[in-house]
Amino acid sequence: MKTTSILLAILILFQSCYTYKKIPKNSFQVNFFKEHKITLSRKKSLRGKIIKINADTLVLSSKGINYAIPKATIKKITELTYSNRKTKQLVGAIVAVILVFLGLNALNNLNFGSLGGNGNWLLPI
Q1: Contact at 8 Å (CB) between 74 and 25?
Q2: Closest to 37 measured CA to CA, from 67, 17, 72
Q3: Number of neighbouring beta carbons within 10 Å of residue 97
Q4: Within-domain flag for 44
Q5: CATH number (domain holding residue 35)
Q6: Contact present, 9 and 97 (Cβ < 8 Å)
Q7: Given a cut of 90, is residue 66 above it in pLDDT?
Q8: How many whole angstroms separate alpha carbon 114 and alpha carbon 110?
Q9: Helix (H) or strand (E) holding 63
């Protein structure tokens, strides 16, 4: 149980408050210098910042390298945006994990040894 809780806590820490929003491919109306993920028709994807859009190509900067991508090979464009819903879920999950740890700790510290059959656990009147 303890190992499961620790693994769950670690997985929650690797979550992000950001999500990718799909952009219509035909319009190519993007926010320059924001993080984008471009999926190509060859099922390869690139992540980076769009720095320039020409008539038939799109220039993406990823890890210091500029890629000229023909528009005909682009299957999907998504933009990294902040998500309020994911942030609230993350905060809720963190609070839930903390409450579970506190509850397990409280149960662990209870002394059930005095609940024997001789009635010693009864409170005096």
Answers
A1: yes
A2: 67
A3: 18
A4: yes
A5: 2.30.30.100
A6: yes
A7: yes
A8: 10
A9: none
Q: In Å, what is the CA distance from 37 to each residue of 67, 78, 94?
A: 13, 5, 28
User: Rounded CA gap, 75 and 37, in Å?
Assistant: 11
The tokens of 10 are what?
A: 């670690």
Contacts of 30 (CB under 8 A, 6+ apart): 23, 36, 50, 53, 77, 79
Residue type, 38: I
Q: What pLDDT is stored for residue 88 in this prediction?
A: 84
Tokens of 80: 């990294």
Cα 80 to Cα 12, 18, 39, 109, 110, distances in angstroms: 20, 6, 14, 45, 48
- Predicted pLDDT at 118: 52
Q: Tell me the average pLDDT across 3-18.
A: 70
Q: pLDDT tens digit string along 92-119?
A: 888 887 888 788 777 777 655 555 455 4
Q: Coil, helix or strand for 98?
A: helix
Domain hosting 87: range is 20-100
